[in-house]
Amino acid sequence: MQVAPADFTPIAKAEHRDDALRAAAQKLEATFLAEMLKSAGMGETRDAFGGGAGEDQFSSFLVQAQAEEMVAAGGIGLAEALFESLKERQNDG
Asked: Could you tell me if residue 33 is inside a domain?
């Protein structure tokens, strides 16, 4: 009788699915936070001593990186709520 590698056990598959769901939820929260930061004025060019065209082009990357760091630090709880909802929906289906 052949034994399946540990990577193919039902527990390992469930953990992999949970990791993928959590990563997707965190990515969505980071995107949401980036949009909120943009709406709050983060990344806008300042009138005096601004970085010019380069600052305008790369400010969205800075805002996205800041949002990702916010999520890594715990975020606002949106990722966890999304994760739990997606996990529940997945278990129902």
From this structure: no
